[in-house]
Amino acid sequence: MRTVANRYPMNLDRLRRMSIIEEGEQQNIRMANLAIVGSHSVNGVAQMHTQLLRNSLLKDFADFWPEKFNNKTNGITQRRWLLKANPPLAALITEAIGDQWITDLEQLRGLEPLANDSAFLERFRSAKQQNKANLAGYINNRVHVTIDPESMYDVQVKRLHEYKRQLLLALYIIQRYNRIKDNPHADFMPRTFIFGGKAAPGYATAKLIIKLINQVAEVVNGDPHVNAQMRVVFVPNYRVSLAERIIPAANLSEQISLAGTEASGTGNMKFQLNGALTIGTLDGANIEILEEVGSDNIFIFGLTAEEVARRRPDYDPFALYNGNEEIRRVLQMIEQDFFSMFEPGIFRPLVDILLEGGDPYMVLADLTSFAEAQDQADKLYGNPRAWDEKAVLNVARSGKFSSDRTVQEYAKEIWGIVPCPIDGNKITE
């Protein structure tokens, strides 16, 4: 506190904000402040996350110790998430460019020229279809829902939390259901929506969202006028071994958190590495995926973090509800128990959160933009070669997101250590 006072004389408000002790009737330790003061390095886990730490969340400390703050974007290990989880694609890649990618993921850049090779694209699609067929068999055995491996597998698997906005995808599914019912002869690409994830034990809202998704699935899958074009599955007991089944089979990766709320995310990286295209907001590591793959190879939608901050003080979800017939119809179906005939009123709290509660994660604000991006995905999926070209480019440009790179950055820039040379099984000095 003396050091802060010397730098900012008589600035009592800054002293209060930066104090390790939170003053009040009961004094508390501010653990974040303590961690920053006691550490020689502080890092975010994606460029956007680090920017938020520096510019808002920890601005006082970043101004005081700018040299402490740095970025280390998260990564994933290709040994598990491609070599082990996706043998068909791993074997194809090794045959095409060798096996150096297993320890140097940037070697995947060698796949870029093959994005225009018809023979490679055919084998790439075959590997994806093999994974999709395997997942379809698992889902049929585990959940007793039959899904079409030729349909687009649209996947959102991750921890259940309102900021990750599984509810946004659920609302879109209801909207798509209505569009198919209203236009039965329209050309909708067949879609299988696959969810997975767990909620914290006491997180009632997240559990209610899980229930809504399952009830929507029951209605959609049981409607003969719709289920040939759309199916919905919530796969229970999401875990790493299940992720290893789902991620290699995905065509579309849902990364749809409200901009400014996701620190990084690594699911987006796992899907990209396995040849899924991302539909996502400019949040977390999605921004860096966009930088790597290019805007033509990703579906970006929604408000930016800056737009969220500007709009939040005056945000009125009722205006969207009253001004958009599709949005109003979706919420009325939930409110009027279309998906809960035998449990009337059970989903009313979700509608209340979106309207009376002010829609804290701006689900309604992004729904129209999300639907437009989904329309783009539909159109592209109708052109298999164009889709596969972009999928191959996503794989080829995923090298940055190896945890090998992340660990090396920590070692060099924070820990100050160097690799220990290995000679067979013997460590040399």
Description:
The two termini are 45 Å apart. This protein has a six-stranded parallel β-sheet with strand order 7-6-5-8-9-10, sandwiched between helices. Strands 1-2 form a two-stranded antiparallel sheet. A two-stranded parallel ribbon has the order 3-4. It has helices at 2-7, 12-18, 31-38, 47-57, 59-64, 78-84, 87-97, 118-143, 166-182, 204-221, 240-246, 267-273, 286-293, 305-311, 317-323, 325-335, 348-354, 363-381, 384-396, 403-415; strands at residues 21-22, 28-29, 42-44, 69-71, 152-157, 191-196, 230-234, 252-255, 277-280, 299-300, 422-423, 426-427. The longest helix is centred in the first third of the chain and has 26 residues, at 118-143. The mean pLDDT is 96. By secondary structure, it is an alpha/beta fold. Helix 9 (166-182) runs parallel beside helix 10, helix 9 crosses helix 16 (325-335) and helix 9 (166-182) crosses helix 18 (363-381). It has 20 helices and twelve strands.
